[in-house]
């Protein structure tokens, strides 16, 4: 349970700092407002999930939300990972080829 509270604090701080930076960017009419707002939303999702998990045992409202999010447990089944590994290897080859082609063109 202590791990959940540490994660709530970390994600809460990251969320608050990101939204504060978005506010400062908006006040200064800077283009970074979208970047910091998206970081704030990115950190807000795990913050809310861990917050709901932490209070699901104490508050009935959060318990119902937790049950809706988690769903019913299902048996574990094997999922072949060959296609994912092939996609990662192909993307790695494309990135390496583009870096090498950029170096060759620069010479």
Describe the structure.
With 107 residues, the protein is mainly α. The chain has a domain at 2-75. The protein contains four helices and no strands. The model has no long low-confidence stretch (mean pLDDT 91).
Give the helices and strands, then pairings.
Layout lengths: L1 H26 L5 H23 L4 H11 L11 H25 L1
Helix pairs in contact: 1-2, 2-3
Helix content: over 70%
> What order do the SSEs take from the amino end to the carboxyl end, as H and E?
HHHH
Distance between the termini: 57 Å
- Tally of alpha and pi helices: 4
- Mean of the pLDDT scores? 91
Shape by Cα distribution: flat
Please describe the structure with a list of short key phrases separated by commas or semicolons:
single chain; 107 residues; mainly alpha; 4 helices
How would you sum up this structure in a few lines?
This protein is 79% helix and 0% strand.
